[in-house]
Amino acid sequence: MLTVAGLSPLAGLALVALVLLLAATVKGTIGMGLPVVGIALLGSFLDPRQILTLMVVPIIASNAWQTVTSGYMGAAWKRFWPLILCFCVATAAGGWLMSSIDPAALLLLLGVVAIGFVVVSVYKPALRLRPQDRGWAGVVVGGGAGVLNGVSTVNGPPLLMYLVACGLNKDEFVGAYGLIALSGSIPLALSYGATGVLGIDELFWSCCALLPVFAGLSIGRVLRRYIDPVLFRQILLVVLFVLGLNLIRRGLHG
User: Fold this and answer.
1) Could you tell me the CA-to-CA distances from 169 to 24, 63, 148 in Å, in that order?
2) Is 39 domain-assigned?
3) Structural domain tally of the chain?
């Protein structure tokens, strides 16, 4: 049963659904942020492993939708298959590692990931990779991002920097990131299941999470027409930074 300390079962479920709705609305509005926003908010009142398993099915479904609708899936696979293969293998390894990490250390890691996401989003390093360097760099990035993905379900910072450095246009960027993230979400779910972290009960609640997530994605697409995305993104980054600090505090002091 998905429960929140200090709240009745119904109130706890309503709170979790509201958080997932908000996180998905962010993704629908600015095109990214579902895992990191969801984790940062849910980390205030749920066990870290419970959060990660809750996010598995929504991550798979949202990335599948993003990949299929991009129209770039085949070209992205031909271009980035070495990165994708390394990403998948490293994700599985990271998933096994997550099952043995102390919860306090996991909270600390999630806080660092949230703040790292903010830093990368703010400074947007203007990296450019030469065509001859993209192959080996993709393997390195795929390995590092995969371990991070398996441990935290968040892979954005290294993958975003790499794809930007490859000089992709907007549509190529969305399609490539969706395919890479989707490819990694399969070994993520399998490794969580193999280690016993993702059982039948956790899988059930993760499937239930699809309802607020897809509702939030729809709301976000509507809000995109009326809200200044730059201002919205700036406010989001400030909130994420504060939430990341809170996760670090919880990891250090309980």
Assistant:
1) 24, 19, 25
2) yes
3) 1
pLDDT (tens digit, 9 = 90+) per residue, 153-200?
888 778 888 888 888 877 788 788 889 999 999 999 999 999 999 999
More confident residue, 196 or 123: 196
User: At which residue do the structure tokens 């549509």 appear?
Assistant: 171
| CA gap 2, 194 in Å, rounded | 21
CB 43, CB 250: distance < 8 Å:
yes
In terms of residue numbers, what domain contains 17? 9-253
Count of beta carbons in the 10 Å neighbourhood of residue 20: 27
Is residue 93 one of the residues assigned to a domain? yes
* DSSP state for residue 224 in the 8-state scheme: T
The two structure tokens encoding residue 56: 């598995």
* CA–CA–CA angle 125, 128, 134 (5° rounding): 125
Nearest to 62 by CA among 197, 189, 179: 179
What letter would DSSP give residue 131? G
CA angle, 205 then 31 then 141, to 5°: 85
Rounded Cα gap, residues 25 and 31, in angstroms:
9
Query: Residue 6 has which token pair?
Result: 């200090």
pLDDT digits (tens, 9 = 90+) for 131-164: 888 889 999 999 999 998 999 888 877 888 888 8
Q: What are phi and psi of 199, to 5 degrees?
A: -95, -170
Does residue 177 contact residue 76 with C-beta atoms inside 8 Å? Answer: no
